[in-house]
Amino acid sequence: MTKLLIFFKKPMVKSISLISILLILYTFLCAFSYVQAVSEDLSNSVFRLHVIANSDSKQDQDLKYIVRDNLLDYMNTICKNCTTKEEAINLAIENKDVFEQIALDTIYKQGYNYSVKVNIGEFEFPTKTYGDISLPAGLYDALRVEIGEAKGQNWWCVMFPPLCFVDVSSGVVDNSSKEMLQNELNEEEFTLISDNSDNSINFKFKLLELFSNSGLLTAKNE
């Protein structure tokens, strides 16, 4: 132990150790800055849907999907001419009561009497893949619908650009939805979520997941 302490007290060793620490710190800060910028841009580009079932019973899960479909049908109707996320959110806010009523009517029609709670705000999302587009975990603006006790499995998707309906035969998001998303992101950011064949891109995506899951990324800047 004494020899080890003497070794680290040598000027050259101390300099190398300090440089190494500074290099690690610099690398961490660069990675954090990159991840924070990309995460914020992605979060600012999409408006998501989060539906929580009453329970994990098959009946409640089936009901969740029926409610989801009816909400999406209405959202697609009112947002068919939207070109920005802000427009989609504003329409959702204006029609919040309508979304709640659609969910309630759907639930009653299926023979249940669950309550419904609808909120529009910023919520935590896990990493999700929609066809050939993957969005990393993080905080996203969303319309959240809680059915009954809201103790069942969640269902997540993207309402704008409309990525909820993916061609199941090809597993590919339609080009118009991609173009909307691509217009909001720079080239590297769009490649990051749409290309899983490049190892360097996959590494950067894993960085996004690592920082998000560790809790180091906070809410978006206002």
Describe this structure in words.
- The protein is of the alpha+beta class and 222 residues long.
- The chain has one domain (44-214).
- The chain is 54% helix and 18% strand.
- It contains 8 helices and 6 strands.
- It has helices at 2-8, 11-43, 58-78, 85-94, 96-109, 175-184, 187-194, 199-214, and strands at residues 47-52, 116-125, 128-130, 133-135, 138-147, 154-160.
- It has a 4-stranded mixed β-sheet with strand order 2-5-1-6, sandwiched between helices. It has a two-stranded antiparallel sheet with strand order 3-4.
- Strand 3 and strand 4 (133-135) form a beta hairpin.
- Helix 3 runs antiparallel to helix 5 (96-109).
- The longest helix is centred in the N-terminal third of the chain and has 33 residues, at 11-43.
- The protein is elongated.
- The N and C termini lie far apart (52 Å).
